[in-house]
Amino acid sequence: MIAIDGHTKLYGFFAHPAHHSLSPLMYNLSFQAHEINARYLAFDLSNDFSQAIAAVRTLGLGGINLSMPYKLKVLPLLDELSTTAELVGAVNTVVNDHGRLRGENTDGKGLILALQADGRKIAGKQIVILGAGGAGMSIIAAAAFAGAAKITVFKRQNQTFTQVAQCLNQIEKVTQVALELCDYADETAMAQALATTDYLINTTNIGMGQGNNELPVPAKLITSLAANVVVTDIIYFPQETAFLKLARQNGNPTYNGLGMLIYQGALAFQIWTAKQMPIKTVTTALEQALYQPQN
Asked: How many of the other CB atoms lie within 10 Å of CB of 29?
């Protein structure tokens, strides 16, 4: 790795909490592979987020990644938004172009690229998405831009339901892809959507954490899926959620969220450096960090 000197470029991860992040491992390996004089650090921010964004300009950071709740809080602090970031109302990547900050959203496209890397096509397919938070909206937009035939979204009917409906309407206008928003509690509508879908994607946090056996949909709906339905959970720890385990036992191809994590990072790395992330090297390192027992 190139030694730190007066020319070293700094990048970072802004979140709270932040110290659990795998991003420093992912990006620093990538900088090293390309012999780029740069370092990536995690910053745990618990107050005055606006000052942290001002510091990106003041200190000349090359760019940052963001986690919730800062994906939304950063919006009014930026100079420019990409089309996707504007549509979904969330930013996970910021580029510092000589003091001008541009917000990007690579989350959803990261998942699409991860699936495509394994030979899975999105164009012309029907997709059911569970949840419509920041990551969910990004995946909805990315799937629409990738040419999905129809996307059915299930969301709790709470205070943000109308806002999400309006956002989906905008995505539908821009992409000309049919989008339908349904109440998460409507099991009949969910069963009907799953009967014809090609993909089932969970973007909620149901099932996250060790010992969490909760399912994002009733078990009977999972066990009634056709065997060709691709089931994805954007959770990557545990390696296999109860949801994915049941789908795998049902004969469905399954994917956790590690691919999405890696490919959204690869997109950010390319935006920042115009270089390709070494996917195999990064994947091996992250799998070892996440899933192999530490002595």
From this structure: 18
pLDDT in tens, 70-114: 999 999 999 999 999 999 999 999 999 999 999 999 999 999 999
Structure tokens at 162: 């109308």
Residues near 154 by beta carbon (within 8 Å), at least 6 away in sequence: 128, 129, 130, 131, 182, 183, 184, 186, 189, 190, 193
Which pLDDT belongs to residue 292? 84
DSSP per-residue string spanning 274-287: S----HHHHHHHHH
Torsion of CA 168, 172, 174, 176, to 10 degrees: 170
**What is the structure's pLDDT at 295?**
55
What is the number of H-type helices and E-type strands within the chain? 12, 12
Q: Is 73 a catalytic residue?
A: no
pLDDT of residue 164: 95
Q: Which tens digit of pLDDT belongs to each residue from 215-265? A: 999 999 999 999 999 999 999 999 999 999 999 999 999 999 999 999 999
Q: CA nearest 34: which of 261, 262, 282?
A: 282
CA quadruple 136, 141, 146, 147: dihedral sign: positive
Parallel, antiparallel or unpaired: strands 80-81 and 93-97: unpaired
Q: Which two tokens stand for residue 52?
A: 């942290």
**Which one of 9, 71, 220, 275 is the catalytic residue?**
71
* Contact status, residue 109 vs residue 84, Cβ threshold 8 Å: yes
Q: 101 near 78, Cβ under 8 Å?
A: yes
Taken in order 264, 118, 217, 167, the sign of the CA dihedral is positive
